[in-house]
Design brief:
Helix content: under 10%
Strand content: over 45%
Largest sheet: 9 strands, antiparallel
Distance between the termini: 32 Å
Number of helices: 4
Shape: globular
Number of strands: 45
Length: 658
């Protein structure tokens, strides 16, 4: 039963909580800082600078701590298999501007032909937003995807259904929602393929691959420059009398290109790694062949921040096993600075490399030496000097193959490939890792690392400038709904760091920091596993005294909905943006509201505070009669405010205004 309160007190209370008395939580955005001036009765955490409520062992102490130099980062982990009754695989992944992922690949379960080019759009938590199968009556493959500056996508691969020859290079431009805007088949009378696409600084595209229709030998490197609308500006075939496969292309900072692959024309072994640097017009500046006496292959290249190049692939010439992951670091002029072979007793191969924000590298591929199955995803982080920092094997009892890796905006990594261990048949496999290589599946491994001294040669390959046939095609576009298997629960780790300072007081002065409340809402599950009505909080482990630096991680599992919806309708917390929910001071059980049973804790807090600290929002809030002290005479007014949510929110006034 509600207590009767004199009208004067009621009006004073209404003024005090004129804008925030309903106790609805506020969402503090990642960029926010400072005090919430209209929320004096609520605890909040602001990433820039703010406050956070906490308790210590002392029952009579519930001070406000000041967070300075605050930072927030979230890292999501998940693993999903996507496919149908046939075979699917992911060959390339990019993180999209909305925090999700776009994956290109191949599908046999859906589409118009025997296999179709596949493009799947995921959200940030691995849920499929849309997916498309693109092709004709025969075979199409998707090999590489980029997100374009207009928010759409470009995918390259190969087509048997369209074009001039047996197989043509295939380039498809999509809108942001997956509609095909244009597509081109490019080639001659024989076999031509696209393996890698980049959007160029002029808004066009460069595609690297192979050609049998043009050039000096069997297969030659094939580099085709398109404008923004799919018209071919120029094309180059690069190689010798035998075979040269171009697998990966990047546009360089000088406007030129670097294309990497493997060659049987040059070098000391059966196959050698082959890196070619071209200028912006497609003319060769230099070429390097690197390898040993056996077979050495390159699958991926990136330009590094020092102007050099990092290439990865596999080597039979060096290392511990049949094949080892092969990593070569070149200078900007093509000198080999260092090289590493990484693996075990069997087959271990690298298929994709990215340079990380700390100057190191992460490589994705496959391992037959480690893990649970015949092949597992292989993920290895190197520092800038080529030393292995950590490595992981990820998979199940069968085959799991990592094809492409990207570093994500949260500092983690996303790897795509194929799985025969999970899903329906052979499925597309997308796994999200945190910055330390952890995911909801996988294991840490310790492969052998060999410092290699390969032979290096500087060949002069033949360069021709063909005029391939360009066909504007209209493939069948099928909107598909593949089966999605969530291999393990989505996990979010939110890391909050900063410096904590709190004012001294009875029970607090010099006491360890025992329990910071960082409140988030998630369908009755609290981060420490304790069930509560509609919310949960996280308790930071101590000790931490005033002025100490801190860093805590919060873990979410088994998401019931995304974005998370709290118990106040219309308000959500988007954890990927590091938004924080405000809850009332005194809500010690994280229920989202202050209960009568919690009032004695508030009473204890009020009894130890005298005089009012004008910088302490709790003090200001509790001092409802504006006498400069918080005491027993304020208790029932605070109680009334805590229990009631029906005040008029339109009354603007200063609670202590004369």
């Amino acid at each position: 039963m509600r207590m009767k309160i004199p009208l004067l007190i009621l009006l004073a209370a209404a003024c005090l909580f004129a804008q925030t008395h309903e106790l609805s939580p506020y969402v503090i955005d990642n960029g926010g800082s400072g005090w919430i001036t209209d929320g004096t009765y609520e605890t909040y955490f602001s990433v820039g600078q703010g406050v956070i409520g906490y308790q210590t062992d002392a029952a009579n102490c519930n001070w406000i701590g000041y967070i300075t130099n605050g930072a927030c980062a979230t890292q999501t982990q998940f693993a999903v298999a996507v496919g149908g009754t046939g075979n699917e695989q992911g060959t390339s992944v990019v993180q999209t501007s909305d925090g999700g992922y776009a994956v290109a690949g191949i599908t046999e379960s859906y589409g118009a032909g025997n296999s179709d080019l596949l493009l799947v759009k995921f959200d940030a938590f691995g849920s499929v937003e849309w997916s498309r199968a693109i092709g004709g009556s025969n075979i199409e493959y998707g090999r590489s995807v980029v997100q374009t500056t207009d928010g759409g996508y470009a995918v390259t691969g190969e087509t048997y259904s369209f074009g001039a020859g047996n197989r043509d290079l295939f380039l498809v431009k999509f809108s942001s929602t997956g509609s095909v805007e244009w597509s081109r088949a490019v080639g001659g009378t024989s076999d031509d393929r696209g393996y890698s696409v980049v959007q160029t600084t002029d808004g066009g595209f460069a595609v690297g691959g192979w050609t049998w229709s043009y050039g000096a030998g069997g297969y030659d490197y094939f580099l085709v420059k398109f404008d923004a609308f799919g018209s071919v500006e120029w094309a180059r075939a690069i190689g010798g009398a035998n075979i040269d496969y171009g697998n990966s292309v990047v546009q360089t900072t000088d406007g030129g290109y670097a294309i990497a692959g493997e060659t049987r024309n040059y070098g000391t072994g059966g196959w050698n790694s082959f890196l070619v640097k071209l200028n912006s017009s497609g003319l060769i500046e230099w070429a390097r062949v690197v390898g040993g006496i056996n077979w050495d292959h390159t699958k991926s290249v990136v330009q590094t921040t020092d102007g050099g190049y990092a290439v990865v692939g596999l080597t039979e010439s060096f290392g511990a096993g049949n094949d080892d992951l092969f990593f070569i670091k070149f200078s900007s002029t093509g000198l080999v600075e260092w090289s590493r072979a990484v693996g075990g007793a069997y087959d271990d191969e690298g298929y994709s490399v990215v340079q990380t924000t700390d100057g190191g590298y992460v490589v994705a591929g496959i391992t037959g030496s480690y893990g649970a199955g015949s092949f597992d995803f292989f993920l290895v982080q190197f520092n800038s000097s080529g030393s292995v920092v950590w490595s992981r094997a990820i998979g199940g009892a069968s085959v799991d193959w990592g094809k492409s890796v990207v570093q994500t905006t949260d500092g983690g990594y996303a790897v795509v490939g194929l799985t025969e261990s999970y899903g329906i048949e052979r499925d597309l496999f997308l796994v999200k890792f945190d910055s330390d290589g952890n995911s909801c599946i996988g294991e840490a491994i310790s492969p052998t690392v060999t410092d290699c001294s390969p032979s290096v040669a500087s060949p002069s390959p033949t360069v021709t400038s063909p005029s391939p046939t360009v066909t504007s095609v209209s493939p069948t576009v099928t909107d598909i709904a593949p089966t999605v298997t969530n291999i393990c629960p989505i996990v979010d780790y939110i890391t909050i760091s900063g410096t904590l300072t709190y004012p001294p007081g009875p029970g607090c002065d010099g006491s360890p920091f025992e329990g910071a409340h960082v409140y988030f809402y998630e369908s009755g599950i609290r981060v420490d596993g304790e069930p509560v009505s509609d919310a949960f909080g996280y308790y930071v482990s101590g000790p931490l005294t005033s002025g100490g630096d801190f860093c805590v991680s919060i873990c979410y599992e088994n998401h019931s909905s995304i974005p998370r919806t709290n118990l106040y309708p219309g308000q959500t917390t988007n954890v990927t943006d590091c938004d924080f929910v405000v809850v009332p001071i005194g809500d010690f059980d994280c229920s989202g509201a202050v209960q009568p049973s919690e009032l004695w804790d508030v009473y204890d807090r009020m009894m130890v505070t005298s005089p009012v600290d004008p910088n302490d929002p709790f003090d200001v809030a509790c001092d409802s009669d504006c006498d400069g002290n918080v005491g027993a005479d304020d208790l029932w007014k605070v109680y009334f405010l805590m229990m009631d949510t029906e005040y008029d929110t339109e009354v603007p006034c200063n609670p202590c205004e004369e």
